[in-house]
Design the sequence.
C-alpha cells in the first residue's frame, strides 16, 4: 500500500469521523469546531493530492478550502453564535441515539451503493468515493435532525465538503467546477447569514419550529 | 526448556514491573496534570506513601455492613490483578499469553466492576447506591462498545487473543487504516469511561454529587481502601497496556529473545509516558460531562466500532 | 399403551435426549426437595417432560409436550388464576402450531411452525410476554422447574426438529430467524430483568434473556450448518448446549432461593428487602453463586457459554457479505449490552436484596433457609462448581450430542481456562496477604456508618430510615431513563404486549361484536345467509366443472 493512498485514505477517514461526530453534538460551538477540523483536513487532503498528482489546480483548491472553509466560514459562524448568544445546546428533532443509528445506516447504504457500481474503476478511489458519499449523506441527515437554522447550515456546509472530497479524489476534475462551487457556497452563506438576521428580527429565535407552525397554520 | 525458562522469567518480570509501576503511573498523571494547570503538584511517589499509610491505619467496619464488606475490595483487586497479568506489556509471548483472550479480559473487567458496585451498595448509603447505579449504566454501554471494537481487531488479526493481536499487528505492516482510526477513537472513549477519567468521572473529585467511582469507596478505610485504590491504579495500567499493545505494538520484545528485552522495556516506559501525557492534556482541556450525556458518548463509540468493522469489509473487498 | 392406532407408542433415547434428561434430573430432585414432593400435578408435569424427551415418534412427543403444558397450567393455577389463563392461551397456540408441524413433510413451513410453537413455549421474543407473568406465579419449586426445565424441553423440540428431523430441507435463513428472535429476547429480557421490582419476575425476565442466548447460539449453528461451515456449527452448538446446562443449574437455584426469601420475609419486592445476608448467610452465599452465573461473570458457571457464543458471533462476522457484517456486529453489540444488563440485574438482586440495611421489619427478622430447600440449593450449587471450573471437560462429554446434531461439525478446544485464572488470582491473593501481614496492621473495628454525614436515625427506626438508601426501583432508574423508556415505552410495558396482544384483543372484541350481530339476526337475514352460502357453493361447483 503506497503512502499516497494510505495518507489520502486516513484523511478521508478523519473527515468522515468529523461528519459523524457532528451528529452526536448538541452545542453549536462543538459542531463548528468539528466543521473547522473537517475543512482543515480536507484542505490538507487536497494539497496532498495536488502534490501526488502534480496538479496545480488541486493546490489552489486546497488553499481556497483552507482560507474559505477552514478560517473564514468558522469565524463567521462563531460570530453569529456570539451575536445571537446561542451558547446553550440546540434542540434536536430526533433523539441523539436514533440519529446516530440513522447515520450508521446511511454509511452502510453508501458503501453498499458505491462498491458494486464502481467495479470497473481504480480500486484506490473506490473507498474514498464511499467515504465522500457518506459525508454527503451525513450532512443531509444533519440538516434534517436539527431544528436550529445555524445547525442546518453547518449540515449543508459539511455536505459540500463531501462533494469536494469526492472531486479531489478523482483525477481530471476541472478546477473551474470546484472554484464555482466554493464561490457558490460563500454566496449561499452570506445570503443565509442575512436571512438569519431577518428571522431573528421577526421571531426573536433561530429555532425553526416556530416557522414550521406558521407554515402549517397557513395551509 | 530454555525457551520456557526465558518465558517464565519474562512473565515474572512483566508481573513484578506492572504491580510495581501502577501507583507510579497514577503519581505521574497527577503530577503532569498539576503542571499543566500551573501548579507544582504532589510528589511522584505520593501514591506509594498513601498506600503504605493506609496499610498501617486501622480498618473500620460500618455497623450497617454485612460480613462480605471486606470481600468486595479484594475481589475487585484480584480481578484487575489477573487482567494486568494477562495483558502483555513490554513483551509478547508470555506464559500468560494463551489465556489472554480479549473476551476473558472483558469478563474480568466486568467482574471487577461488579465487585466495586456491590461494595458501594454494601452499607446502604445513598452515595454508594447512586454511584453503583451510574456505574451499572456506564458499564452497559462500555461493554457493548468494547465487544464491537474487539470484532474489528479480531477481523484484522484473525484471533481474539491479545497476545496474538499484538504479534500480528507488529509483524504485518498494516499501514494507516481508516478502520483502525475509528477503532482508536472508540477505544479511547471506552477506556476513559472504564478507568474513571475526566469526561465521565473525576478521579480527583471527592464528595461531589456526580461522582461515580469515589462514591462507591466512601465507606472504605484502612487496608480495604488501599486495596480499592490499588485496584484503581491497576485499572489505569491495564487500559494503557491494552491500548499500547493494540495500537502501538512496535518495538515490543519477544519473550524468547533476551536481547530484545531492554529495547522493549525502554519503549514500554516511553509508551506509558506518552499515553500519560496525552491523557493529562485531554483531561485538562475538557470539562466533566453530565451523567446522562455519558450513554450518548459511549453510544457514539459503539457506532464508531461498528463503522470500523464495516470499513474493514470495504478494505477487504477492494483489496487495499 | 397409548399411541396412534397401528403404531403404538415408541420410545427412543439418544445422546441429545440423554443430555437434556441430565439437565432435567438435578432440578427435579431439587424441586422435590424444595417441597413439591406431595403434589400429583408436579409429578405429572415431570412425567410429561420425561415423555417428551424419550419420545421416539411425533405423536408421543406431542402427547408428552401437552401433558407437560396441562400439568404446569394446573400448577400455575394454584398460584394465580389470571396468569394461568394467559398461559393456557399460549400453550394452546403452541400446540396448534406444533401438531401440524409434526405431520408435515420436511419443509420451511414445518420449521416456521416448529419455531412458532416451541418458541412460544420457550419464551422467545416476540412471544415471551407470558413468561414473566406465569413463571413467578406457582410455588418456588415449580417456578424453578418451569424456568430451568420446561423452557429447555421446548428448546429440545426446536433442536430436535431444526437439526435432525427437518435437516433435509434446511435453509440458511432458518438460523437468521432464530438469531433475530434470540437477539430481541436477550435485549428485552435483560432490560426487564434490571427494571422489575419483584424478585421472581426479574428472575423470569432473566430466563427470557438466557433463552435468547441459547437461540442465538442455535441460530448461528443452524445457519453455519446450512452453509457448510464446520467450525462455526460446532462453536454455536457448544455455546447453546453449555448455556442450557449452566442455566438449568443456576436458575432453579435462584428461584428456590427466591421462594425461601418469600417464606422468610413474606414479600418478594426488592423495595422491601435488604440486608438479608445478615439473617440468611447460607442462602445469601448460594444466591451469590447463582447471581454470578446469571451475570456470566468469569469463574462463574455462566461465563464459558457466553465466551463461546461471542467467539461464534465474531467468527460468523468474518464471513459473508456487507449485510452479514453489519448484522453480526449489531448482534455483537446486542450481546454486549445484554451481558452488561444481566450484570446490572444480578448486582441489583444481590446488592439491593441481600446487602445494605433492611427496608422492612420482616427483612430485618428473616431467618435462614429451611432444611429441604437449603439441601436442594446446595445440591444445585455444588453441581455449578464443575460447570464453572471445568467447562472444557464438559464440552468433551457433549461431543456425541454435537456429532448427532451436525455429523461434520468441528469442535475446537476451549481457550478459556478458569483454573489458570484461579491460579493467577491465588498468587495475587498470596502476594497481597504477604504484604498485609508484613507491613499492615490487623483487625477490624465496628463503628457507626458514616452515611454521608446524615445524622443518626431516631430510636424507633432500629436500622435507619429505609428511604435514605436507594431502592430497587431507584437503582434501575438511570437504566430506565436511558434505555427503558426508549425500548419499552413510557410505562415500561413490554413491546410484545403492545404490538401483539393489543391488536389481538381488539380483533377479539370485533369478532365478539360480529358474533353478537349474527346471533341477533332476524329470520329473514338468516335465510339470506343460508341462501347466499348455497349460491356460492353452486357457483364454485359450476366454475370448477366449467374451468
Sequence:
Amino acid at each position: 500500500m503506497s503512502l499516497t493512498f494510505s495518507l489520502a485514505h486516513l484523511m478521508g477517514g478523519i473527515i468522515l469521523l468529523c461528519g459523524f461526530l457532528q451528529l452526536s453534538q448538541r452545542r453549536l460551538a462543538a459542531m463548528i469546531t468539528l466543521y473547522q477540523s473537517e475543512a482543515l483536513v480536507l484542505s490538507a487532503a487536497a494539497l496532498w493530492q495536488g502534490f501526488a498528482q502534480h496538479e496545480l489546480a488541486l493546490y489552489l483548491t486546497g488553499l481556497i478550502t483552507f482560507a474559505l472553509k477552514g478560517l473564514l466560514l468558522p469565524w463567521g459562524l462563531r460570530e453569529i453564535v456570539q451575536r445571537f448568544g446561542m451558547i446553550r445546546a440546540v434542540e434536536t428533532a430526533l433523539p441523539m441515539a436514533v440519529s446516530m443509528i440513522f447515520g450508521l445506516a446511511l454509511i452502510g447504504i453508501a458503501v453498499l451503493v458505491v462498491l458494486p457500481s464502481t467495479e470497473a474503476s481504480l480500486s484506490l478511489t473506490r473507498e474514498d468515493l464511499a467515504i465522500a458519499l457518506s459525508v454527503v449523506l451525513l450532512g443531509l441527515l444533519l440538516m434534517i435532525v436539527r431544528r436550529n437554522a445555524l445547525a442546518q447550515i453547518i449540515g449543508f456546509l459539511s455536505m459540500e465538503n463531501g462533494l469536494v472530497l469526492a472531486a479531489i479524489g478523482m483525477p481530471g476534475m476541472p478546477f473551474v467546477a470546484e472554484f464555482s462551487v466554493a464561490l457558490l457556497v460563500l454566496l449561499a452563506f452570506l445570503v443565509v447569514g442575512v436571512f438569519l438576521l431577518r428571522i431573528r428580527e421577526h421571531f426573536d429565535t433561530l429555532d425553526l419550529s416556530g416557522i414550521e407552525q406558521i407554515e402549517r397554520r397557513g395551509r | 526448556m530454555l525457551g520456557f525458562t526465558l518465558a517464565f522469567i519474562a512473565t515474572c518480570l512483566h508481573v513484578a514491573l506492572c504491580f510495581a509501576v501502577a501507583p507510579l503511573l497514577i503519581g505521574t498523571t497527577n503530577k503532569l496534570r498539576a503542571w499543566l494547570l500551573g501548579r507544582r503538584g504532589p510528589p511522584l511517589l505520593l501514591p506509594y506513601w498513601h498506600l503504605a499509610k493506609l496499610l498501617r491505619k486501622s480498618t473500620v467496619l460500618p455497623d450497617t455492613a454485612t460480613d462480605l464488606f471486606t470481600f468486595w475490595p479484594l475481589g475487585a483487586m484480584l480481578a484487575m490483578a489477573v487482567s494486568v497479568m494477562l495483558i502483555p506489556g513490554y513483551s509478547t509471548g508470555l506464559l500468560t499469553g494463551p489465556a489472554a483472550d480479549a473476551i476473558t479480559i472483558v469478563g474480568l473487567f466486568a467482574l471487577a466492576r461488579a465487585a466495586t458496585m456491590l461494595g458501594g451498595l454494601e452499607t446502604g448509603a445513598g452515595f454508594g447506591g447512586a454511584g453503583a447505579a451510574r456505574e451499572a449504566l456506564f458499564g452497559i454501554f462500555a461493554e457493548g462498545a468494547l465487544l464491537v471494537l474487539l470484532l474489528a481487531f479480531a477481523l484484522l488479526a484473525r484471533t481474539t487473543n491479545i497476545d496474538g493481536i499484538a504479534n500480528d499487528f507488529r509483524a504485518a505492516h498494516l499501514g494507516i487504516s481508516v478502520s483502525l482510526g475509528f477503532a482508536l477513537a472508540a477505544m479511547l472513549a471506552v477506556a476513559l469511561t472504564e478507568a474513571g477519567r475526566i469526561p465521565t468521572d473525576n478521579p480527583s473529585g471527592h464528595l461531589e454529587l456526580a461522582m461515580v467511582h469515589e462514591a462507591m469507596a466512601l465507606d472504605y478505610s484502612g487496608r480495604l481502601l488501599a486495596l480499592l485504590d490499588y485496584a484503581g491504579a491497576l485499572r489505569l495500567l491495564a487500559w494503557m497496556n491494552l491500548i499500547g499493545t493494540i495500537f502501538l505494538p512496535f518495538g515490543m520484545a519477544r519473550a524468547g529473545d533476551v536481547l530484545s528485552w531492554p529495547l522493549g522495556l525502554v519503549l514500554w516506559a516511553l509508551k506509558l509516558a506518552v499515553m500519560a501525557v496525552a491523557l493529562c492534556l485531554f483531561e485538562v482541556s475538557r470539562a466533566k460531562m453530565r451523567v446522562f450525556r455519558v450513554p450518548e458518548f459511549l453510544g457514539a463509540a459503539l457506532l464508531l466500532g461498528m463503522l470500523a468493522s464495516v470499513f474493514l469489509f470495504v478494505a477487504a473487498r477492494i483489496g487495499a | 399403551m397409548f399411541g396412534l392406532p397401528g403404531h403404538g407408542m415408541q420410545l427412543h433415547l439418544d445422546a441429545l435426549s440423554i443430555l437434556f434428561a441430565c439437565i432435567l434430573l438435578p432440578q427435579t430432585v431439587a424441586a422435590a426437595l424444595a417441597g413439591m414432593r406431595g403434589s400429583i400435578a408436579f409429578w405429572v408435569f415431570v412425567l410429561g417432560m420425561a415423555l417428551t424427551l424419550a419420545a421416539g415418534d411425533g405423536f408421543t412427543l406431542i402427547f408428552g409436550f401437552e401433558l407437560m403444558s396441562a400439568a404446569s397450567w394446573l400448577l400455575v393455577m394454584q398460584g394465580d388464576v389470571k396468569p394461568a389463563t394467559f398461559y393456557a392461551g399460549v400453550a394452546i397456540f403452541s400446540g396448534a402450531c406444533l401438531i401440524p408441524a409434526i405431520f408435515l413433510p420436511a419443509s420451511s413451513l414445518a420449521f416456521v411452525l416448529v419455531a412458532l410453537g416451541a418458541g412460544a413455549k420457550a419464551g422467545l421474543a416476540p412471544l415471551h410476554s407470558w413468561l414473566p407473568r406465569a413463571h413467578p406465579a406457582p410455588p418456588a419449586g415449580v417456578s424453578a422447574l418451569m424456568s430451568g426445565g420446561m423452557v429447555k424441553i421446548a428448546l429440545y423440540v426446536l433442536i430436535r426438529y431444526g437439526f435432525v428431523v427437518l435437516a433435509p430441507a434446511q435453509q440458511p435463513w432458518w438460523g437468521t430467524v432464530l438469531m433475530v428472535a434470540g437477539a430481541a429476547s436477550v435485549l428485552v429480557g435483560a432490560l426487564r430483568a434490571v427494571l422489575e421490582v419483584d424478585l421472581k419476575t426479574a428472575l423470569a425476565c432473566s430466563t427470557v434473556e438466557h433463552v435468547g442466548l441459547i437461540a442465538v447460539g442455535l441460530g448461528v449453528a443452524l445457519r453455519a450448518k446450512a452453509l457448510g461451515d464446520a467450525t462455526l456449527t460446532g462453536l454455536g452448538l457448544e455455546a447453546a448446549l453449555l448455556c442450557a446446562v449452566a442455566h438449568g443449574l443456576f436458575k432453579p437455584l435462584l428461584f428456590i432461593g427466591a421462594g425461601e426469601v418469600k417464606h422468610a420475609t413474606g414479600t418478594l419486592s426488592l423495595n422491601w428487602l435488604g440486608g438479608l445476608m445478615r439473617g440468611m448467610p447460607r442462602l445469601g452465599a448460594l444466591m451469590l453463586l447463582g447471581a454470578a452465573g446469571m451475570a456470566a461473570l468469569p469463574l462463574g458457571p455462566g461465563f464459558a457459554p457466553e465466551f463461546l457464543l461471542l467467539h461464534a458471533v465474531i467468527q460468523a462476522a468474518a464471513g459473508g457479505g456487507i449485510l452479514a457484517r453489519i448484522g453480526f456486529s449489531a448482534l455483537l453489540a446486542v450481546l454486549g449490552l445484554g451481558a452488561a444488563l444481566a450484570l446490572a440485574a444480578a448486582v441489583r438482586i444481590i446488592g439491593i436484596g441481600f446487602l445494605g440495611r433492611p427496608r422492612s421489619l420482616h427483612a430485618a427478622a428473616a431467618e435462614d433457609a429451611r432444611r429441604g430447600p437449603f439441601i436442594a440449593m446446595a445440591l444445585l450449587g455444588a453441581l455449578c462448581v464443575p460447570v464453572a471450573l471445568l467447562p472444557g471437560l464438559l464440552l468433551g462429554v457433549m461431543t456425541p450430542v454435537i456429532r448427532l446434531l451436525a455429523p461434520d461439525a468441528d469442535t475446537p478446544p476451549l481457550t478459556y481456562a478458569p483454573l489458570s485464572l484461579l491460579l493467577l488470582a491465588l498468587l495475587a491473593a498470596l502476594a497481597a496477604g504477604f504484604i498485609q501481614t508484613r507491613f499492615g496492621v490487623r483487625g477490624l473495628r465496628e463503628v457507626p456508618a458514616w452515611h454521608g454525614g446524615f445524622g443518626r436515625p431516631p430510636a424507633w427506626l432500629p436500622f435507619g430510615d429505609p428511604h435514605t438508601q436507594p431502592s430497587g426501583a431507584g437503582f434501575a432508574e438511570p437504566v430506565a431513563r436511558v434505555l427503558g423508556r426508549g425500548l419499552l415505552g413510557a410505562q415500561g410495558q413490554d413491546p410484545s404486549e403492545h404490538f401483539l396482544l393489543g391488536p389481538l384483543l381488539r380483533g377479539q372484541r370485533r369478532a365478539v361484536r360480529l358474533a353478537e350481530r349474527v346471533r341477533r339476526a332476524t329470520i329473514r337475514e338468516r335465510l339470506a345467509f343460508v341462501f347466499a352460502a348455497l349460491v356460492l357453493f353452486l357457483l364454485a361447483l359450476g366454475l370448477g366443472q366449467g374451468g
